[in-house]
Amino acid sequence: MSQGQHRYTTRVEWTGNRGEGTSGYRSYERAHEISAPGKPMIPGSSDPAFRGDRSRYNPEELLVSSLSACHMLWYLHLCADAGIVVTSYVDEAAGTMVEAEETGGRFTEVVLRPTVTLRSDADVEQATQLHDRAHHLCFIANSVNFPVRCEAHVQVEAAIGR
Predict the structure, then answer these.
(1) Is residue 2 pLDDT above 80, yes or no?
(2) Spatial strand order in the sheet of 11-14
(3) Under DSSP, is residue 129 helix (H, G, I), strand (E, B) or coil?
(4) What helix, strand, coil percent values describe the chain, rounded to 5?
(5) pLDDT above 70 covers what percent of the chain?
(6) Of 2, 49, 85, 110, which is most buried, counting CB atoms within 10 Å of its CB?
(7) Residue 152 and residue 112 in contact, taking contact as beta carbons nearer than 8 Å
């Protein structure tokens, strides 16, 4: 991996003006579109608890999914380097946010709960230990000011034909 500085650009465009702008708290939608050059648009809103559209992604979900994806990508990389064949990876990550009047609120933790399936000849103990290394290498986890925990479940594929 090359050392250096990397820059990421995105565009967030508010699309929720009902014709009155922000003339009142209830007069506008929280709808927005998130995009980056050459990539599909992500429909965004606020959490439904804050008058958002539940059919669109909210910033809190995107933060939790960023932590999950970063961990997964590092883990897969480390497994490939170690000769451990991962055949399936599914994470049911969850984050906890608390509201606070003075600051608006903050995340208090995110818990990653990946279920990893390995080829039957894999070293389960080493594969389990690599989650710790992946956590320490994750760019996103290294950038947040709250705990990110990993409760991984590592399993091997069932033998075919038995």
Answers:
(1) no
(2) 11-14, 32-35, 42-44
(3) helix
(4) 25, 25, 45
(5) 96
(6) 110
(7) yes
Provide the token pair at 44.
């965004």
Integer Cα distance of 30 and 48 in angstroms: 10
Question: Could you give the CA distance from residue 90 to residue 117 in angstroms, rounded to a whole number?
Answer: 9
Q: What is the residue-averaged pLDDT of the chain?
A: 93
- Exposed/middle/buried for 89, CB within 10 Å: 0-12, 13-18, 19+? middle
Regarding pTM above 0.85, the answer is yes
Amino acid, res. 42: I
- What value does the CA radius of gyration of the chain take, rounded to a whole number of Å? 20
Tokens of 146: 């709250």
Give CA–CA dist 106/128, Å, rounded: 30
How many beta carbons lie within 10 A of that of residue 125, not counting itself? 9
Q: What is the pLDDT of residue 161?
A: 46
